[in-house]
Every structure is written in structure tokens, then in C-alpha cells.
Amino acid sequence: MNKNLFTYKKSGVNIDAADKFVSFISNISSKKRGNKKNNNIGGFGSVSDLPKNIKNPKIVACTDGVGTKIEVANLLNKYDTIGIDLVAMSVNDLIVQGAKPLFFLDYISINKIDLKKMKSIIRGIVKGCDISQCSLVGGETAEMPDTYEKGKFDIAGFAIGITDEKKILNKNKIKKGDLILAVPSSGLHSNGFSLIRHLLKTKKINIKKNLFLKRELIKPTKIYVKEILNLVKKNLLNGCANITGGGLADNISRVIPKNLCAEIDLNKIRPHKIFNWLKKNKISDKEMLKTFNCGVGFCLIVNPKNIKKVNKFFMKEYKPYIIGKISRNKNNVILNGKVHWI
User: Fold this and answer.
1) Could you read off the pLDDT tens digit of each residue along the chain, which spans 342 residues?
2) Distances from the Cα of 314 to the Cα of 90, 227, 308, 324, 328, angstroms
3) Residue 338, SS3?
4) Architecture of 171-336 per CATH?
């Protein structure tokens, strides 16, 4: 072969490696879900069945990424959990509408294909899909040597769900007197990592040598699909909110009707240790509440008479607890009191 010939591989793109990766994804996804019908990975598009037991089906779609939590994964050389994060960030939005996740697609863009790293990411995505009871049906891998620095990459996820038109959770179901319940987060989830990384860099903190931070910063986002869909099935929810970037106030305001108000008692919030650690590092209360979930990963809006029934669907670690109520007020959200940082 003429060494002077231009090839795609010489430019930094290895199609052979990409083909091997696609083959790996196809094998692992079909084995995990045991669904040969959905095995379209490697084709131009995925063909999937819609459930036949829904009278008035409505499709719900969401997309998201994991932000700069990727840089923590790179630093710790640990990639098997950010795939779970990726799925969680989309499916936790889907269920706010009362939708059941059907399938998931991913997009991975990277400087140079590293099969070991990418297989680890995909294992996490497949695990996240398994927890969410949906299928990984396709995606895209882009090797972009001039766009990303050596070792750098980004991931994005796309989730499609379905619900019956009569089961859609909308603002109209929320009433004055409803209670707001906090469902605990598993930790930081996938928000606020640019601020965290700035703090670590400024204070010269090596997370590789700090077991607490090493564990907390890479801990995957809790997926709430099973619990929320059970509540929807039993008609126990009037509304809910996924608490992500923007914090408690910004996210819960998105589901509150204009004539009503979410009154939240900050005194009742139970922050995890990682948030107490962040607070001790000179981050204001306002910034904490605006940037992080502070221990509240998801909010439920329910009729007071349904609280005991709601609690039955959650494990002890994620038992919901009351943090507020729905009232009439010109303000969409009112935060009262103060979080008790330990």
C-alpha cells in the first residue's frame, strides 16, 4: 500500500474501531433486554413497536446530557456510572408528564475511539435503560479529532416515552391544599459540576485522595421511573417535578398553575453530607438552592389523603416527606425558612 496515500485513519478517524464498538453495543443491548425484535443497532434507523393497550396514546420526548460531570469521570478514570446518569437525566423528565419510557438513543462524540472507555460508558447506559425498563435501540458515535482535545468526549441522550392522553400529568390537576413531598436524591445527580470543579481547582483539592469526595462526585443519578409510574397507575399524583439544574424553585415553578403557589418550608429539607460539605466551602444559601438539588431529587404534589398510599411505593432510603403545600398567591413559588446545614 502506498504510504503517501491519504486515508481516514491517518486523519484520526478509525472506522474499524467504530465498527467493533457498534457490534459490542448490539450484543450487550440485546442480551440485557432479551429483545431480538428491537435489535436494529447498526442500521440506519430503529424500528420499534408501540404498546397496543393504550387507547389515546401520546408520545413524550426528552433529551439531555450529563454536563461537566464527564470531567470527573475522566479524572477518576471511571466511566461505568455516567451512562446511568445520561439515561436518568432524560427519563426522569419523561415521567414528570406521566409517560412510560419506551426506548433510548445515545450520542457519543470523542477525540479518538477508546474501546475500553466507551464500552464502560455503554454498560452504564444499558444498566440505566434496564432500571428504566426501556430499550437502547440505537445511537451515534462520532470520532472528531480536531473538535475535542486528547481524551475528551461528550455524551447526549434521547428518550421517547408514551402515555394515555387521560393519564398525562398537567397543571390542571394541581389543587389548592395539595401537599408537596420531597423524594430524596442519591446525591449531586448531574448538576452543578462546573461550580464544584472550580471549587476543587481553587482550593487545590485532590479528589483521588479523598475517599468521601471520590465516592460522592461520581455517584450516579437516582432513576425514579418505577416509583412514579406506579403512582400514576394508581392515580395518586396530581403533579411532580424533576429537580435538576436551577434547583428547587426553578423546577417546581414549571408545573405550578398561574393562579396557585408552591409554598416550600426550607427548614424541612434534609440535605446529604455532600451538600453540607459544599456549604462549608463558602457557597451562599442562594447559590446552593439555585445550583444543586440539596438532597431533594424529585418532588411530588399529592392530595393529603393519599400520603400513606404514596409512601408504600418507595424504599426506606427514598421515602418522600412533606416540605410544603399548594396555596393561592400571586407568586409562583415561595421559599420560607432556611436549610439547616450541619
Assistant:
1) 556 665 545 555 566 666 665 666 667 665 554 444 445 665 677 788 888 888 899 999 999 999 999 999 999 999 999 999 999 999 999 999 999 999 999 999 999 988 899 999 999 999 999 999 999 998 888 899 889 899 899 999 999 999 999 999 999 999 999 999 999 999 999 999 999 999 999 999 999 999 999 999 999 999 999 999 999 999 999 999 999 989 999 999 999 999 999 999 999 999 999 999 999 999 999 999 999 999 999 999 999 999 999 999 999 999 999 999 999 998 999 999 999 997
2) 21, 6, 11, 19, 30
3) coil
4) Alpha-Beta Complex (3.90)
Contact 219, 188 (CB under 8 A): yes
Output the CATH code of domain 15-167.
3.30.1330.10
Residue 61, φ and ψ in degrees, nearest 5: -130, 140
**β-pair partners for 181:** 300, 322
> How remote is the C-alpha of 247 from its chain's centroid?
14
Angle between helices 115-132 and 225-233 in degrees, nearest 10: 20
Q: What gap in Å lies between CA 188 and CA 297, rounded to an integer? A: 9
How far apart are alpha carbons 282 and 260 in whole angstroms?
Answer: 34
Beta bridge partners of 138: 105
Task: In whole angstroms, give the CA distance from residue 36 to residue 29.
Answer: 10
Comparing CA positions, the residue from 112, 62, 111 lying closest to residue 89 is 62
With a CB cutoff of 8 Å and minimum separation 6, the contacts of 190 are: 66, 67, 69, 85, 88, 89, 221, 244
Q: Sketch the domain layout of the chain as residue ranges.
A: 15-167, 171-336
Q: Are 108 and 121 in contact (CB under 8 A)?
A: yes
Distance of CA 275 to the CA centre of its chain: 18
Residue spans of beta strands (DSSP E) within 206-245: 239-242
Q: Cell for 62?
A: 426528552
CB atoms within 10 A of CB 267: 11
Q: Which residue has the cell 417535578?
A: 241
